[in-house]
Protein 1
Amino acid sequence: MTSVVATPQTDAGDVPPEVSERVRHENRLGQRLVAPAVVVMLIVTAFPILRALYLSFYSYSLTAPDERELIGFSNYVTALTDQLFWRDIGVTVLYMVVTVAIELVIGFAFALVMHRVIFARGLIRTSILIPYGIITVVSGFAWQFAFTYQNGFVNGWLPFIDADFNWFGDTVPAVIAIMVSEIWKTTPFMSLLLLAGLAQVSEDMVEAAKVDGATWWQRMWKVVIPNMRAAIMVAVLFRALDAYRIFDNIFVMTAGAEGTESISFLTYRQSIEQFQLGMGSALAVLLFLSVLLVAFTIVKLFRVDLAQARGE
Amino acid sequence: MNELKQKIGLGVGVALVLAWCLLPVAWILSLSFKSQAAVSNGSDPGFLPLDSFAGLENYRAVWEDDQFRRAIINSIGISLIATVLSVMIATLAAYAIARLEFKGKKMVLTTALAIAMFPVVSLVSPLFDLWRTIGLYDTWPGLILPYMSFTLPLAIWTLSAFFREIPWEMEQAAQVDGATSWQAFRKVIVPLAAPGVFTAAILTFFFAWNDFVFGITLTSTEAARPIPAALSFFVGPDPFQRPASLLAAAAVVATIPIVLIVLFFQRKIVAGLTSGAVKG
């Protein structure tokens, strides 16, 4: 019997024939088992993104589908020379940097509490999973109502804020409100990843540092944090990419008004609300490329090693 | 003395964590019991429903709303089907990744990672166009398919981390002891693998339940619109005044399944979240 799946010659040279038969069998079985997953993952992503690439060179509006016309890079030029695009990129990066930084600090504090605590462990873990599991839209509503001056409690609780202060009337307070909802919902995820990292730090090492007279602060910075670097980096990478794609909270809380729009929201607005599929596709491609750029920058900048973090 | 100080510090920390997690939940719960009239004229601001307690009135209104009832059914059905299919496919893939050596393994893991980082919104316009062409727009399968694609990476990563920990030699050991290979699989491997599969299923369900982008762009009627999308379109009788307390009641209803899952499976979720991403 001849097999179509041939092992490359470099391998065949130094592997005995009967092993090579087994290797070939394992190869085929492995590929068959992963095939459905790969196909399903690619159907909904690879094909549409290629289609978006194609449509992005057209002037194509759903309001006038018959007037589709090839216009080359015009959509890209329009997008990249528009101030709106750069403003939204700026706002998106701001959301990402601020939320991830705050989440990292609070998440680390929460992880320390969960790591040390001996009583009520179940209660704390159950509570911390509620924001994690809650629908982002629900979190958005909860915080939007909390921030409104008619019904919310935030103005009443913050002593330095007037009772009738309108959080959604200007860019800065509206962005803060959106960030609060985002941070509330995703800090638990960050803290659970960091908790797993903390569990890997050897207690003996921390004890030894303590015996040597290191203060709590020194133990954190010199022993604990360097030893859980991989976990921190993975948490930051995942959360940063997630934050860069922020959409739900903006949709629910401000609908992009007052300059709170992110790049994801702009893309959505162009394609779905304005029916500009050509322009929307160009923005989709730019969004895709910008996510790649952000991922690449984070991996390079912080030297994230995913394989090491997975213990491979 | 020092120990006491530490204990107090820890107690304060626990209180802060609990307040952080539960305060907004308490707020939406409290809002759902305020009367709609009090909310729309702002007569009872503040955290608790003091003179505007409406009992279950809002919940009754939500339940009688046809669109919302449909949305709950859609969400439960779509999320469950997507979860089962996604976990089945992911189990096959994760088994291969954890146990077999084959060409393209790295490629699969890289693809999964790339999909996990994919900006969902960039698919919105091409999928919207494509789904309308092939008739998947505003149907259950039209949402199940994207949910599967985007939950597979998480499920594969979580499951392969779990499967790597399973002592597979035990299967052979059972066979040596006289078990048939089916018995060995069913009595030895399935009980060991089940917790991992279950955890992956919970995380997958959370993702599908939470999705908003596909929900608003790939549906247009209550035929397939899931809860998050229905919530955002829920305007009530007066379109100029969002019925905050009604929405809050609907939000509470949408949160109940999550709270139940968390209450029952807290340990498994934590294990799944931490094993998939970081392993020592």
Protein 2
Amino acid sequence: MKRGLVAVAGLLALGLIAPACSTIGDPGGMPEALPHGGTGAFRVLEAPEETGLRGTPGAALLLLEDAFVGAMVQGDFVFFTSAPPVEEPLPMVPEDHPAGEIFWPAFEARRIHRGARRDDGFGAFDGGGAILTAEAAWEGEEVFDPWVVEDGGVARLYYAADGGIGVAEAPGLDGAFTRVGDGPVLGPEAAATGAPTRPSVVRGPEGDWLMYYDAGGEIRVARSSDGLAFTPLGPITVEGMDLGESPELERAHPGALAVTTPAGRPLVRLYFESIREDGAHKLYVAGSFDGVAFERHEVELLESVDLRYPAPVALDERVTLLYASTRFNSVGRITRGLQKRALIVSVAPLSTSFLPPEEDEAE
Amino acid sequence: MRALLLTLAALSLAPSLASAQPMDTYGMGSRSVALGGAVTADVEDFSANYYNPAGLVRSGELRVGVGWFGAHHMFEVNGYDSNVDPVHGIVLGLNVPGRIDDFRFAFGLGVHLNDQRVSRTRTLPRERPRWELYDNRGQRTYLATSLSIQPFDWLRIGGGIAFLSYSKNNLLIRGDIDFANPSLNSQLEHQLTAELITIRYPQVGVQVQPLEWLNFGLVYRGEYALDNTLVAEVGTLDSSGRPSIDARDATRIIVGEVVIPGYLSLLSQSVNAYVPHQISFGASVEPTPDLRISFEATYLFWSLYQSPIGSSAIDLRIAVPPELQDTIMVPDSLTQGVPADANFSDRIVPRVGVEYTAVRNTDLAFAVRAGYFYENSPAPNQGGAFNLIDTDRHAWSVGAGLELFQLRPVLPGSLAMDVHFQYGWLPSRTMIKESPIDPVGDYTAEGHMIAGGATIEARFE
């Protein structure tokens, strides 16, 4: 009997010990990735995470001599406003010239450039060359604020000029753009608050085209069924709390992004520049189910006092890149010391990393 | 024997170490899990300590069982692995019968001991998505002690008390923090105090056997919630217990040549691993001696759930030097977190189990088993700021049991060996957000889980 009990106890003990010895405690697991609504916070990508340009962390495009502003990225190309410096000597910059603003008299007329993505870094582009300069009478001297969409194999370039917003088309993003029509698709009469600039065009939740544009510090929207003939709908409405300390004076330079949530719901996210009473230019985002009535996110996307021209790109349903221009003092031979701007790119969610695998492991 | 009974009686009333309840999710004991948990009516092995303590007295045998259990989760949100930790560990228990004249009784002890961690609490950011019923719930040790009596041949009554604990943690940091080079030049004292404070919950059950082939069972398990309290202080209190930022030993932030005395207090209170009141009613029939079929329904009062979205209070005081008044802005007040209602709904879980004894002779018995249960999710659509993820769950299980009878003189009784495998399917569920600018956005959650285990039980006549 005693031997039997010992044998059974031994068997039970073996059953107890064997599995216990086979396991060792692990640290707790964390999700591979959490869902994200593209609202921020964003963080600026750093070299070599995006550009490979050592010494200019965060810069996705930096022009030594030419002025640069108002970029957007479509496919493997960046489209932006640029202008070379005027012949030397450059005019003197007045002492009261606003901080962060490019001193345009030091540069020639603005035109639209296209740069290609470089092979040596994520999000870094070359300076490219001009693809559109002012020619039509309604355009005046300059064309600027490009926004490119692809529709049925055609690349469509929306741009601003003195006389409103025009359209040019190309057979592809890398093709030659030719103007569509003889005049603007949205003229200066579209808004009483100011001439329309900075068009940003997306497919709306109902499948039609929505053009957001800046009209004197007010963001307005126009609708089109074909992307060419737009009907102004008026200013967008923006509700929700704003936790910024300095009051918001204007909302400007919209950058729109049409997304479909994992639930299959179409949304428009509108990233915009919030110009504050203290002079700061901050980036915020608002969202809308119908493309007209928006609800804003309450805090800024990226901590900075001077970020402009937000241009979002959705990498997938949770990772969003946000291009924007930041203040930069020129180091070029001709324009040295002039206040210019450079393109930076940031990402949300914050945990997203584009570091090469070996550098990830090194951390 | 009397001394043993007294010892067990004392054990049943003594507070245990930290315990909790992974059993609702994973079950206990291979035979019971293989039957889909539909065993309330006639359970009699050590898993009766969880399923129905009334069953402890049923067999009249002294039983000692031990086994291993493991569950692996493959849960995804928007296609990304949620990395919900596996749960595995040892299960063990015993039934100790007794008799005073014709009055039969039994004591029982059931334990689930995780082999990865004894207990875990997590305080996550309020809006952070988490698998509410799986993320942390299984990371507990379970201990139940029970007493069962049989006043009549057809009636068994049992009850038990489980002792649980909640944690109260206090983290105190004081000293100098070098803002420019915190890892090298900061001089800080840390003091961490963690307390596990005991709470109790009851479970009672009854088994009725009006006919040899017909059983009914009813069990009630009490509610419990583990309160999780975290107090973190960076700074010093004066002699009256008030934050001091003027004392010489006040905690200081150092930025270059600038020294800034400060004080920060964070109080976070939340509920962890809530288990609701629940009532199970089950029946089992044996239409033939070799076939047993059981049905069961469990009602869980999830509507009483105290949300894990707890409260937080922050007190920040910084004595900014006059020369930095325009540079460093100290907010007048910081947003305090307030508890948010989970708005869960009650649910009924149906279960069914079938056991067929394929071989039975004087040497051995061999049985095969199958079971199924369905849990509808008590969690509502997470349309607001919080993200308590849950979906329905279908669970199918299979198992087998071998019992050896002729083991004398080694064992004056029998030895039962059971194995089980369970597959759980959590069908896709999409959470729709009310705000178009929700920081998390819409998401779809789904998953699979597999579990398995084996149990050995010695049954002494």
